[in-house]
Design goal:
This protein has six helices and no strands. It is mainly alpha-helical and about 150 residues long. It is found in: Cytoplasm; Nucleus. One of its GO terms (cellular component) is cytosol.
Length: about 150
């Protein structure tokens, strides 16, 4: 199960990286970081204001990264919710089918199945596990014409 969680995490991170590589995101981040460049030059006389401006830019960039990652994670959550919904429906179908097959199986078939489950042996060929109605054979003299 941990490998599944790791792959989900990996997918979410990949989506986040894809979002960050998006041209609009990069151009926005670039514009965000460079838009105040002229203000930073004006603030050089006061190093405290310059540090605050840089800190603000870093915080804005981190917020942008965080929002893109959250968007990617939300998308992945929606995909996983849909997969879970489909798996629950499939499981319900299989449970109903299993119940039906159990009711249609003869006691001998159920005993044979239980023995196979306990020993871990593979099931025999389908013809031997599901006996059908007895096959009636006709004598060779009657098989020359079409049967009705």
């Amino acid at each position: 199960m941990s490998s599944m969680n790791a792959s989900c995490y990996s997918v979410a991170m990949d989506l986040g990286v894809c979002q960050l590589r998006n041209f609009n995101s990069i151009s926005f981040l670039s514009a965000l970081l460079s838009a105040e460049g002229s203000h930073l030059k004006l603030d050089n006389s006061s190093s405290g204001a310059s540090v605050v401006a840089i800190d603000n830019k870093i915080e804005q960039a981190m917020d942008l990264v965080k929002s893109h990652l959250m968007y990617a994670v939300r998308e992945e959550v929606e995909v996983l919710k849909e997969q879970i919904k489909e798996l629950i429906e499939r499981n319900s179908q299989l449970e109903q089918e299993n119940t039906l097959l159990k009711t249609l199986a003869s006691p001998e078939q159920m005993a044979q199945f239980q023995a196979q489950v306990q020993t871990g042996s593979p099931p025999p060929a389908p013809a031997s596990t599901v006996p059908g109605p007895p096959i009636l054979t006709q004598p060779a003299s009657h098989s020359s014409g079409p049967s009705a």
